[in-house]
Amino acid sequence: MKVTSKKEIFFNKLGWGIMKGETKELPEDKDSQAIILAHPSISLVEKTAGHSTAEKNK
Amino acid sequence: MAKTSGTEINIGIGIESAAAPGTAVAEAYFIPWSEFSLQSVAEKEMFKSARGIRNETSNSMIKRKYSQGSIGFVPNVEVMPFLLSLALGSVSSSTVSDSAYTHTFSVQNTNVSVKTATITVEQGGVETAQYTNCVCNSLNLEVSDSYAKCVAEFIGKFGTTDTISESFSKETEFAYHQMTAKFGTSFSNAAGNSATPLKAFSLNINNNILTDEAFLSGSNGIVTGGLIPGRLSISGSYSLHFADTTELAKYRANTKNALIVTFTGELIGATSLELITFKLGKLILTAPPLEYNIDGLTVLNQEFTVEWDTTDYEISAIVVNDQANGTGSRYNPA
Questions:
Q1: Is the pLDDT assigned to residue B4 strictly greater than 70?
Q2: Each residue of B169-196: pLDDT tens digit?
Q3: Chain centroid to CA B208: how far?
Q4: Which residues have a Cβ under 8 Å from the Cβ of A34 and sit 6 or more positions away?
């Protein structure tokens, strides 16, 4: 899962940060993902419809 | 043995539901603090009766259990909405426009409806304390020739424990050069006037929380929702060079002016900017202002108290940021 951010943010305990406007892969750990996704300035990057269809056809 | 340095102290804040003050909520923002003193207070009362010994006390009790202290920080558009909501009590937020949201804070005159917060304090690896039912007793702002500085003083319930996973965002931290001050006979008049260059500005919003009323029979702790604001007093000062008699005349004639103080930051959308604005209804200048400096400039230091005005009221604050408060979940949960 990839996310993007409206701000430069660093999560101290997770050792994970993101720059403003950057698109970045989330850590694999589910708890870490939940903490990051709860931040109001961070949002999931939605896959384009074309991409999703291609994946379904695999 | 674990030891804790100051930089290992992480502070999170979240505003509690108006329907359930004192019920802990998750941290919505982590405050990059510059000074901090909030902690649990176990106030002691000594038993001092005569019983044939000279030592002045032979028993004691915990008279009151609560939390008290302050958080100092540099104001930015992320932290200020939380503190302004707690200090003033009423919030109205816009929908998104050009990627920005406008949040307007005004005085809640129904004083039993004070907003409460959960403040969580991670103290290195030793303990993470959680203080619920925290009300803002006072909020101070000071600006002179560097970063602006805010200090919020809180009173809340006695601490329990919690865990946190903190994050910090990079914000526009406001300083004197991003501040403008406009005076006028009213807000509309002031908004149209040129900015007055100030040497310094300070503002104090004091809710005068009625702490004594929070302790009732059956418990030595604070009753949930029991911290009630008293009379609201808003005061402050501003100083400027003595270049004409305009300001001196205001003091001498009790000319009541409105004041709009604005901090302007970075672009949020195409044209919308980060903003923190304080609108003060009517300033009553309360102290003789001239300060003579033999080695420097003569300065007018105007101390003021804010008077309620029929049109402009007493105070409102406006913050423009990129955070939605559409369902009232962030700054004024129902």
A1: yes
A2: 999 999 999 999 999 999 999 999 999 9
A3: 12
A4: none
Which pLDDT belongs to residue A49?
Answer: 55
What is residue B113's predicted lDDT score, i.e. its pLDDT? 75
**What is the ipTM, given to two decimal places?**
0.82
CB pairs under 8 A between A and B: 34
Q: Helix or strand or coil: residue B288?
A: coil
Q: Kindly report the length of chain A.
A: 58
Question: CB contact, 8 Å: B3 with chain A?
Answer: no
Of the candidates B155, B255, B157, B282, the one whose C-alpha atom is nearest the C-alpha of residue B206 is B155
The pLDDT value given to residue A55: 47
The continuous run of DSSP H or E covering B177 comes out as none
Would you call B173 an interface residue with chain A, using a CB distance cutoff of 8 Å?
no
Residue A53 has pLDDT above 50, yes or no: no
pTM (predicted TM-score): 0.93
Domain range summary for chain B, segments of one domain joined by +: 6-44+61-321
Nearest to A6 among B28, B166, B322 (CB): B322
Contact B170 A9 (CB under 8 A): yes
- B76-101: average pLDDT: 96
| Nearest CA-CA partner of B139 in B204, B210, B231, B235 | B204
Distance CA A16, CA A9 (A): 9
A40 interfaces chain B, CB cutoff of 8 Å: yes
Which residue from A11, A20, A40 is facing B323, i.e. has the nearest CB? A40
Per-state percent for chain A, helix, strand, coil, to nearest 5: 30, 30, 45
Give tens-digit pLDDT for B147-171. 999 999 999 999 999 999 999 999 9
Query: Phi-psi bin for B254: left (phi > 0), alpha (psi -120 to 50), beta?
Result: left
Looking at beta carbons, which residues of chain A come within 8 Å of B167? 9-12, 35, 39
Nearest chain B Cα distance for residue A34, angstroms: 11
Comparing alpha-carbon positions, the chain B residue that sits nearest to A20 is: B170
